[in-house]
Amino acid sequence: MICPECLTEYREGVDRCADCGEKLVDHIEETLSSQLVSLTMTTDAGLLSALADRLERAGVPYVIEAGTALPLLDDRPIDGPQPWNARVWVLDALHERAQEILERLQRGDASTTEMSGPFPGVH
Ligand SMILES: [Zn+2]
Asked: Yes or no: is domain 36-108 CATH 3.30.70.790?
């Protein structure tokens, strides 16, 4: 067991760090990946690149999974390539902010990938 905050290792059976009171985890990797939450799924590559651009400028860490076999990530069988699809993950702590960015993008730019025009609601 290990504390995700100060990285102190504890023996099995302890569930909180004596120093910081953090809940202990088995592996640090698990903590990092569990901090990602799904933001959206899209088949719109234009929206995806605009979203990635906005998230980057807003300082929101994100992960994009994209391809034609996304169901395999959920252990669902496929019998060949599926339609292209992308899934966007963001850091748990910034999910709300990312959601706002996504909604603004969808409201102001639902049908076009045009990036040069004015965006209502974006300042
Ligand atoms: Zn600690």
From this structure: yes
